Amino acid sequence: MSISVLKFGGTSVKNISRIHHVADVIAQCDSKKCVVVVSAMGDTTDHLYNLAKQCATIPNKRELDLLLATGEQVSIALLALTLQEKGINAKSYTGSQIGITTDDSHSTARILDVCRETLKNALQEHDVIVVAGFQGLSESGEITTLGRGGSDTTAVALAAACEADTCDIYTDVDGIFTTDPNKIPEAQILPSICYDEVLELARVGAQVLHPRAVELAKEYNLQVRVRNTFKPNHTGTIINGETKVERIRKVSGIAVDGNQAHVTFVGVPLDFPFIGTTLDCLSKQNVSVDMVSQSIDFATRTKCVSLAIKYEDVDCALLSLEELKTSCAAKELVVDTEVAKVSVIGSGLGNSHQTSAQILSVLEDHSLYVKLLYCGESRISCLIPLSAANHATALLHREFRLHEHCSNDLVLTA
Amino acid sequence: MSISVLKFGGTSVKNISRIHHVADVIAQCDSKKCVVVVSAMGDTTDHLYNLAKQCATIPNKRELDLLLATGEQVSIALLALTLQEKGINAKSYTGSQIGITTDDSHSTARILDVCRETLKNALQEHDVIVVAGFQGLSESGEITTLGRGGSDTTAVALAAACEADTCDIYTDVDGIFTTDPNKIPEAQILPSICYDEVLELARVGAQVLHPRAVELAKEYNLQVRVRNTFKPNHTGTIINGETKVERIRKVSGIAVDGNQAHVTFVGVPLDFPFIGTTLDCLSKQNVSVDMVSQSIDFATRTKCVSLAIKYEDVDCALLSLEELKTSCAAKELVVDTEVAKVSVIGSGLGNSHQTSAQILSVLEDHSLYVKLLYCGESRISCLIPLSAANHATALLHREFRLHEHCSNDLVLTA
């Protein structure tokens, strides 16, 4: 029995006419059976959240989940009705009804289990089952939600549970691009990308798919396709594991995150265990640090410590940073928010020192100086002045030949 | 442990500011524990129904129930959040979560059971539990709704299950009036009315409370109060069983239903079993007949048969009525839609022939001739010309002294 999982995001079911369009896309699916996962219509979730904020300053998360879960419940009923009207044997299921069990972390719940028996029976009785994304039921019987983008995770979890042949994430973009096409017109759609690269993209703010969904897909080695609801003939981008043959393409894409802050402590006494103390102190406030560097001046027996945090964390972190400065008697604390993190994504970058050298020299050739550098397994990030972000991206995009048509760069095994 | 049940209708929770007001009303409740039942916000149910109608010509009732049930789920979450913000130990429950089991008649489900254990535990853990009205879970695990006004039924069922001390139905009117105050300015609020009278009011179209809720209240001999959300100091109208002392008031109110049609067959052969055949034929089409009369002309050996049906049933009934006329060779079929049914409501009217005589003579004194008459246990209805409806109501209202202050008319036992 061939089974397809199709997930449609909020913009795809924004209004009744789009729901009719989505029903047409489903009707044209070749598979014998379809599992369709939908998000809430348009900005319903934001609207409901705003209502909650008018009732309580910090809304209780259990009540909030009960409230937000209604958004998807509306979508599934309307889509099921539309499919039935087209003569399709369809039925809708809430997360609870299809047997999605989560832990009890309201608003960020993790799927613990999908009842294969329930799913199997539903697929035996109906050709299309329409499932509410983003939600589940905790073991204590409470309605939970998986957090923003959680419908992607629902789709992948269901695809794994029913051993689906395909799992297509329909959205309002054509696929995953080499970089933001709104800023770099040369950006190309990637025909394929691997799990780790997508996870790195999410980590640096270019969220194309919910990270938990990618992790799950990787765990089950499940191929996921990102495609445009309104261009059903486009192939989109396939997300899968590493290809079996040697990769020709080293770099898959470039992501820019302009919401960064560069924090520098000048004149920290050499013997003070500064980095450890700082990271410990920031992590207690849920402030994550991506890049750190330290330079030592043996003449004055001081060091200069520099780190990057998210722009929105600055307010929260500043008080502790000031206290740290005082406690270690550092000379100066400088916070620069006019910075951006430009990240080059590609699995296997960690094996090639050549790439980081290539990045630094391209940028320096154009007088763009890197304030901080991070080299990871699948990502190299540079902190540079915000004003230079687009220029740097364009240079690197061309340097790694991402403007050339990508489809021949990878030999796909799928 | 004193328990109060409070039910708030859609207009009472129409927007966030009204939800805050409702939370204040609840906060002022004297009882130790409160069970609060809420409807969907404002016209949410109509809005959702309209969306469904844009998806399917005749929406599947199972999907429709799943859709409509979200309305109340939104209300309970928002009200619970608002109560929590005021420091009240509150929690929301969907119909399913509080253990309301119904039959599987989607859109008109009947409550089969309320889980006393779940309700008891909820009330032990929380001071206020906010329950979604109008909905339940069928034994096969499907979400069901109880039909329009079903939240009243939820409130009464919960009040019976937790043996509540009071059950107050908060709405946007001051209580139950002797007749429509918009048409007869002399109309008064009834301090109390008995179950049968409210059921008769519902039967003639003046629905103040869902009939199923009244039946349940009668079954459990549970006193229900109808009161205004926006005038919490007003006492409203108490609905209960017959008072122990003899009733002083004979008539409680007068209801007018302008959506009626008067159907007359002239010259029906005397030996044709006309009434039985007609009622049988109409009931098959779900057309109910309230009043029937027959007069015989022995000279021509024919009869004239006259009946009242609802205005909206005319289209549906007309074809069969025409066929009936042909099959029995009646001379004429006349349908008059310019009629109204004026009903005098009062329990024990059936024991007093005097009242119907009194009604007929008052109307005839003013040249208002009754086309059809129905005398029941708690109701006497007259079909009269539509143009005379307000005049007739005013005459009868004064004849039965309903304009006088009602509060002394009944000795309450409550």
Instruction: List the chains of the largest interface with their residue counts.
Output: A-B, 35 and 35 residues
Task: Assign the CATH superfamily of the largest domain in chain A.
Answer: Acetylglutamate kinase-like
CATH topology of the largest domain in chain A: Carbamate kinase
Give the assembly state of these chains.
Answer: homodimer
Uncertain spans of chain A: 407-414
Shape estimate of chain A = globular
| SS elements, strand count of chain A | 18
Order of helices and strands of chain A: EHEHHEEEHEEEHEEHHEEEHEEHEHEEH
Rounded to an integer in angstroms, the radius of gyration calculated over CA atoms of chain A is: 24 Å
Overall average residue pLDDT of chain A: 91
Strand coverage percent of chain A: 25-35%
User: What is the level-2 CATH architecture name of the largest domain in chain A?
Assistant: 3-Layer(aba) Sandwich
Number of domains of chain A: 2
Terminal CA distance of chain A reads 20 Å
User: What composes the largest sheet of chain A?
Assistant: 8 strands, mixed
Spatial order of strands in the largest sheet of chain A: 3-6-2-1-9-11-12-10
Brief summary of the model shown:
The structure is a homodimer of 414-residue chains. Chain A is an alpha/beta fold and 414 residues long.
How would you describe this protein?
Two copies of one chain form a homodimer. With 414 residues, chain A is α/β, with parallel strands linked by helices. Chain A has two domains: 3-172, 3-Layer(aba) Sandwich (Carbamate kinase); 254-399, 2-Layer Sandwich (VC0802-like), CATH 3.30.2130.10. In chain A, 34% of the residues lie in helices and 27% in strands. The first copy, chain A, has helices spanning 16-27, 44-55, 61-85, 116-125, 150-161, 195-203, 211-219, 274-284, 314-328, 353-365, 389-399; strands spanning 3-8, 33-38, 90-93, 100-102, 111-114, 128-132, 135-138, 143-145, 166-171, 192-194, 224-228, 237-240, 253-269, 291-297, 302-310, 332-345, 372-375, 379-385. In chain A, strands 3-6-2-1-9-11-12-10 form an eight-stranded mixed sheet, with helices on both faces. In chain A, a hairpin with an 8-residue loop joins β4 (100-102) and β5 (111-114). The first copy, chain A, is globular. Chain A starts with a strand and ends in a 15-residue tail after the last helix. The interface between A and B is medium-sized, with 35 and 35 residues.
